[in-house]
Amino acid sequence: MADKDNNKNEKNLSSEETKDKEKKLSAEEADNEKTSDGSKKEEKAESKSSDDKADKKAGIDDDKELLQEDDAGDLILEHRRESIPLNRENAKFTRSKGNLISLDLTNPDGTTEFFERVVIMRAFPISNPDEFLSIREPDAKRKGRGNEIGMIRRMTDFDDETQKLFLEELDRRYFSPKLMKIISVKDKFGYLYWDAETSSGNVTFIMNNPFSNIRVLDDGRIIMHDIDGNVFEIPEPEKLDSQSYKKIEIYL
Description:
- This protein is α+β, with helices and mostly antiparallel strands.
- Among the domains are: 84-173; 179-249, no CATH class.
- The chain has helices spanning 2-79, 160-173, 210-213, 242-249, and strands spanning 84-86, 91-95, 101-106, 112-115, 119-122, 131-136, 148-154, 179-188, 191-198, 201-208, 214-216, 222-225, 231-234.
- The strands form four sheets. It has a four-stranded mixed β-sheet. It has a three-stranded antiparallel β-sheet with strand order 2-3-4.
- It is flat and about 75 Å long.
């Protein structure tokens, strides 16, 4: 009887010990979960903080780029100048030592400028070659394309000596031989091969799409463009010999 009671007490103790162990394990697991949750929260907080810092830095970098772009625009505008009308009163053109064109300019505010070299360009090289002449600074690697200093409305606004200076410069820039006689025109693989006599001697040039590249201007002149961008002019088509005129007439 006593042995049975002892066995019963041992079982009860063992059961209680097991329950205590289970409680301890549950408590430890709960603590671990809390610790894990805390670590995760800390990691999230640190990650968010890092993201916020990265976003803030990116925002600062963007602002810097915008400021730099604005500054660059200011620098570009700073180097630009306002074009003004040029005439005999405010512009004096002379030949430089290097056989180029120099300009003494009087600005609207009375200040003067000297340009060792200027470039003359035609705004309408075919339709109005002697009007709307753009006077520009030369192109430069550092500054890029030269700024326009001013515009000449008509070449005839200046004296004969200055006009001669202009024409010499323009003839060098806009080489446009006058076509005097057409020797032959041959069609090969959709291209026209022209052999002609011009004011610059005998030339051979190639043209595609002649109905677009041969034009009759309002004043009667004929302008021809080859595939290399060269321009040939027939100033008085009616003075061509009959054989030459027949060769070009079909394209007019």
